[in-house]
Amino acid sequence: MEEHKWVEEIINAAEQNSSSSKLSEKQLKIVEAAIEIFAEKGYSNTSTNEIAKKAGVAEGTIFRHYKTKKELLLAIVTPTLTKVIAPFLAKDFVKEVFAPDYKSYEEFLEVLVRNRYHFVKSRLPILKIFLQEVAFHNELNKEIKDLFTKHVYVEFTKIVDHFQAKNQLIPLPSDTVIRLTITTVIGFLITRFIILPDYDWDDEQEIAYTVKYIVAGLKAN
């Protein structure tokens, strides 16, 4: 049941954002079906008829609850931002990853990569929908940037500055070290879960390789 925790998170958030406060049984089925098909096929390639069939309701039932397919999408994406992405970029992520007193940048990276690996693995369908659509909604894009800048960036900079002061990292600008670290980690996660999900992955080994690769490129001579 743990792997479906993200469904409960989004449904609970959707209920909090609903004017009626409690989603009906049919609405729950519609949201669950939409999450599954949007994640698999993408928003633009999904029809409301497909969602209705998956949910076991008439297509007209969808439009009684959501005026358009986009409104249904936003009923999923907006709670995703508030209940999944925001904690990921704010309090939860910072508390879990940036709070401990690390002895090395490598130790910090091991915690960072494993934390994000498990986060993505447990919420992949809803994150796929969010990533597919966030680029097309400027307000969501801006909110993500603001959250990262306000919460994660500050703490990440402290980590980089700390290990540069200890001569463990090459003297590149903090922004560059953060960018190189993040793009490598995200590249691993996207390849692992989206581009080549059916590859015969040894996840423990790949996590270790990813950490070693970053450290090798950033380690001071």
UniProtKB/TrEMBL annotation:
<dbReference type="GO" id="GO:0006355">
    <property type="term" value="P:regulation of DNA-templated transcription"/>
</dbReference>
<dbReference type="GO" id="GO:0003677">
    <property type="term" value="F:DNA binding"/>
</dbReference>
<protein>
    <submittedName>
        <fullName>TetR family transcriptional regulator</fullName>
    </submittedName>
</protein>
<feature type="DNA-binding region" description="H-T-H motif">
    <location>
        <begin position="47"/>
        <end position="66"/>
    </location>
</feature>
<feature type="domain" description="HTH tetR-type">
    <location>
        <begin position="24"/>
        <end position="84"/>
    </location>
</feature>
<dbReference type="InterPro" id="IPR036271">
    <property type="entry name" value="Tet_transcr_reg_TetR-rel_C_sf"/>
</dbReference>
<keyword id="KW-0238">DNA-binding</keyword>
<dbReference type="InterPro" id="IPR050109">
    <property type="entry name" value="HTH-type_TetR-like_transc_reg"/>
</dbReference>
<dbReference type="Pfam" id="PF00440">
    <property type="entry name" value="TetR_N"/>
</dbReference>
<dbReference type="InterPro" id="IPR009057">
    <property type="entry name" value="Homeodomain-like_sf"/>
</dbReference>
<dbReference type="InterPro" id="IPR001647">
    <property type="entry name" value="HTH_TetR"/>
</dbReference>
